[in-house]
Amino acid sequence: DTEVTQTPKHLVMGMTNKKSLKCEQHMGHRAMYWYKQKAKKPPELMFVYSYEKLSINESVPSRFSPECPNSSLLNLHLHALQPEDSALYLCASSQDTRGRSYNEQFFGPGTRLTVL
Amino acid sequence: TQLLEQSPQFLSIQEGENLTVYCNSSSVFSSLQWYRQEPGEGPVLLVTVVTGGEVKKLKRLTFQFGDARKDSSLHITAAQPGDTGLYLCAGPSGGYQKVTFGIGTKLQVIP
Predict the structure, then answer these.
(1) What's the mean pLDDT when you consider all of chain B?
(2) DSSP reduced 3-state for B83
(3) Is A102 in Cβ contact with B48 (below 8 Å)?
């Protein structure tokens, strides 16, 4: 299985709602990532988990809360979002990159989030 | 943070034409990846280049890594409508887990 899956595909939420984005991979990858992508921009890193531990938080507002329940799953909990948080949220995974000169990431199809 | 500049940002060509897109930096990269992204989808990894001067071919796509490992190019021969998409180059930045992306080249191949 070489896929990264994400659910839901689309999500519309109000600013007072609480919702979660889910990501799953079964490639045995030990690093998982959340990215945010706005229209006509490249993906922007939010969080990195390595061996189920949060290793990088790119100064993301606390209204975004990541969680890694196990090595195959990655969640992003959303609360009190703002309209400017509307974007495509991408999950990615990769092998443990320590000692390597490259980081090949495999992306899911993304969740299109609209905040009203 | 190491920056990657891509050119051109937009390219519209007829089916059957050849094209080259570029990814440049003032910094040396240990590797570069090329991804293709279609609208509303996640990027799909096409190739990784690691060695300076390396050339890799993927059917009609030819990827080259510059000798100094500061630049890379993607050449497409006889472009087809299925090649339409956003082509992103990416490389490691600020640690082994972080990747920086170029802004991308948006390619449209007209039938």
Answers:
(1) 94
(2) helix
(3) yes
